[in-house]
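Q: I'm writing up a methods section and want to include an example of the input and output format. Could you take the sequence below and give the corresponding predicted C-alpha cells, formatted cleanly so I can copy it straight into the document?
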Amino acid sequence: MRKRIGNIDFSYDIFAESVDHRVIIEIQKAELDYHFDRFLHYHYMAVAELQRKAADYKIEQTVYTIVILTAPYTIHTKTGLPIKKEILISDSDPRDLEDKIVPIYGHKLIFLNPNHKNAQTPKNYRDWLDLVYESIHNREKYQVNLQNTAIKKAVDLIEYEKLSPEKIREMKEEAGKRATLAIYEDKLEKAEQELLKEKQDKQKAEQELLKEKQDKQKAEQELLKEKQDKQKAEQELLKEKQDKQKAEQELLKEKQRIYALAKKLKESGELTSEIIELTGLSKEELGEVLNEPM
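A: Here is the clean output for your methods example:
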C-alpha cells in the first residue's frame, strides 16, 4: 500500500519529467488566489514524495512547481499592500550573509498571473503568458506570437474551432460561473475586511474612551490631591499661627511673673542692682515696671 505523505491529498493538472529524469515540472491552474497556501503544501509534498522513494533523503531530481492563476490577485502582502506581479518565484535554496544564493536544492515554486502584465517580463515568459490570457479572454481570435513554433503548436492543439456549439456553450457557462465565483469571493473578502475594520475601529474607539476615562480619573485624583495638599498647608499654617499665639501668651505670662517678682523684691527692700541681676530686666525696663526713674 502506498504510504501517505502529509495529511492532505494532492494532485497536479499537468506532470512532466525530462528525458534524463533529472527535472520534474508540475503545473496547476488556479482560478482564484485563495489556493496560495495549498500550492506551497503541494510543492513541498512533491519533494517529500521523491525523498520517500529515495534510498536516503538525497534526491537527484529538481522540482519546478508552476501555478498559473487566471484571475487578478485579491490577496495582499503582510504589509497590507496588494500583490500585482506577473511572475513570483519562491526559491528553496538558502542565502549566505552577503545575500548570495547557495545552490543546494534547486527546487522552485513559480506563480504566473497574466492579468498583471509587466514590460520587464522576459520574452520566453511573455509568449506563454499571452497564450494563457488570450485563451481565456479572447478565444475566438488569439493575439499571440505565432512566430514562436511552440506557441503555434499549442494553438493548433487547442482546436477551438473544432468544438461543437454545445461544448462552446458549456465552456462559456463555466467561464461565467468562474467569473461570478471570483466576484463573490472578492465581495466576501471585502465584507470580511470591512467587518474587521469595523471591529478594529470599535476597539480603537473603546480604547480611546477608556483612555479618556482614565485621564479624567487621573485629573480628578490630581485635583483631589491638590485640594488635600492645600488643606494640609492651611492646617499647618493654622497650627503655626496657634503655636505662635501660644508662645506669645507664654512669653507675656513669663514677663508678668518677672514684673511681679521685681515689684515684690523692691517692696522687700532689695537693692536695684540685685533686682536686675535676679530678674534679668534692664535698668530701663525695671524703671517702667516700678514707675520710677532710674
